[in-house]
Write a structure and sequence with these properties.
Elements lengths: L2 H11 L4 H8 L4 H8 L6 H29 L1
Helix pairs in contact: 2-3
């Protein structure tokens, strides 16, 4: 493992986005960063899925509150 890979691993685990990692590592394109370190982002899929689930649940809750309010008025 190289220092660049270690640095990229630490940045991914700390939540940095691909563009920030790209700039820090000096890559010309974000695609270069993803090509080299895509495997480091696998754990992000779970957190993205959980975040989407939370947003959908919040939207449904807000929609239900709006409907109840509308029915009262």
């Amino acid at each position: 493992m190289t220092y660049g890979h270690t640095a990229a691993s630490l940045m991914v685990k700390s939540g940095a986005n691909v563009k920030a990692i790209q700039r820090r590592l000096g890559h010309t394109l974000a695609a270069m960063t993803l090509d080299a370190y895509a495997n480091l982002f696998n754990d992000d899929l779970d957190s993205v899925g959980g975040g989407v689930d939370e947003r959908v649940a919040a939207a449904k809750c807000a929609q239900n509150r709006f409907r109840r309010l509308r029915d009262v008025l």
